[in-house]
Write a structure and sequence with these properties.
disordered N terminus, alpha+beta, 13% strand, 14 helices, four-stranded antiparallel beta sheet, seven-stranded antiparallel beta sheet, globular, single chain
């Protein structure tokens, strides 16, 4: 019944906006596109392809869809000078199969390749999905550098008292970062009864953060630290932990520690959950070039705003999840060759290769959230770019 009410509300809002005449005509193309293909509910996992094409570039445009906090662009954006163009054989076919909206390849601090599709461009903002997890992880490092989080071995409940007595009471900050809490969770994106589909819409307890309210009811499946299990809800919990520790909204801390220091060219936004907290495991909206700037920022050690050696821990294999040559760090996907990546459903990604000083930031709208050949094609593309650079391309 609750889903049906949301469906009616969104549909009615679209009708009213289209009927607004001159006001509608004054909107930017992203907002008009969103209204024309207005999703029928707030669950992105149920949206049709054309609805996602319209919404992924405009998630923050209409409060009826989602509210958002903003981070201001840097006063002096970090320059991205043009480098030697990188010749990309077969790229047109790859872009079509990936349904690429934007890709920026930076090598040795210079833009070697840039492309946009799906009617998107360099001025637009595309949603991140779980790429946001790696931003959130970096904010944990900043909070440790600031002395607000004392230790990775601290229990999570030290910073979120509402978790006391739950399965999270014995979970450390480190274990949360590595997705090894041992708490039961279902992340199946195609199961409407999975936790990942239900938790954002679950009714929170009075005066309790929505994420905390849902997660503190979950049972334990394994002892803390023993089993890796992917859990978006827990990254949301990390966001609550950081904002509680630093005493300010997560978006404000993001602007202070990442957005402005990284020299972002455009305003970014972060969608909010039911109780007004940023959805830390998801839902940053940014320009593709600014996602690439985040990769550069990480390559440079985040301007000393995280502890020495932070990325040496965060971006190497802390947990093995079963794929040879791969692993999971602190909210980063790792490769045994020293590369690492931020990844989000439907084809969002930031690939970082320190040895080659390489960053590949890309946004897309795959036909399915994760299951399909697109992920394998993207991995092959990363290897192709590495090989081209090694060959002097």
């Amino acid at each position: 019944m609750a889903i049906r009410k949301r469906t009616i509300a969104l549909g009615a809002a679209a009708a009213l906006m289209v009927g607004g005449g001159g006001w509608y005509a004054s909107l930017d193309k992203e907002t008009r596109g969103l209204i024309a293909a207005m999703p029928t509910d707030r669950d992105v996992l149920t949206w049709k392809l054309d609805q996602r094409d319209a919404a992924f570039r405009a998630m923050d445009r209409l409060p009826v869809l989602a509210k958002a906090n903003t981070f201001a662009a840097a006063p002096a954006p970090t320059a991205l000078p043009a480098g030697k163009p990188l010749e990309m054989p077969g790229f047109a076919d790859y872009a079509a199969k990936q349904r690429l909206a934007g890709i920026v390849i930076i090598q040795d601090g210079k833009v070697r390749f840039e492309h946009y599709g799906l009617g998107f461009d360099a001025k637009g903002r595309w949603t991140s999905f779980s790429v946001a997890k790696s931003f959130t992880s970096t904010l944990v490092g900043a909070a440790i550098r600031d002395g607000k989080i004392k230790s990775l071995e601290d229990k999570v409940s030290r910073y979120i008292p509402d978790l006391r007595g739950s399965a999270y009471d014995d979970v450390s900050v480190r274990q949360l970062l590595m997705m090894s809490s041992g708490v039961q969770w279902n992340e199946d994106y195609e199961d409407p009864n999975a936790d990942v589909a239900k938790f954002n819409n679950a009714e929170p307890e009075p005066e309790v953060d929505a994420t905390v309210s849902y997660l503190r009811k979950l049972p334990r499946a394994h002892p803390p630290g023993t089993v890796w299990h992917y859990n978006t809800g827990e990254t949301n919990l990390i966001g609550v932990l950081v904002s509680s520790a630093v005493g300010k909204p997560l978006s404000e801390y993001m602007e202070e520690k990442i957005w402005k220091p990284a020299g972002m060219e455009q305003q970014g936004t972060w969608l909010l959950g039911q109780t007004g907290h940023e959805i830390a495991g998801c839902c940053i909206q940014a320009a593709t070039r600014d996602y690439a700037r985040f990769g550069q920022f990480v390559l440079g050690g985040a301007n000393g705003l995280v502890p020495d050696g932070w990325f040496a821990q965060a971006t190497v294999k802390q947990k093995f999840y079963g794929e040879p040559g791969r692993g999971y760090g602190f909210q980063w996907w790792t490769y045994d060759d020293g590369s690492f990546a931020a990844q989000g459903i439907f084809g969002q990604g930031i690939f970082i290769d320190p040895k080659r000083k390489l960053v590949i930031a890309s946004n897309a709208n795959w036909t399915r959230a994760t299951e399909g050949p697109e992920g394998e094609w993207r991995e092959a593309f990363y290897k192709q770019v590495q090989a081209l650079i090694d060959a002097g391309g």
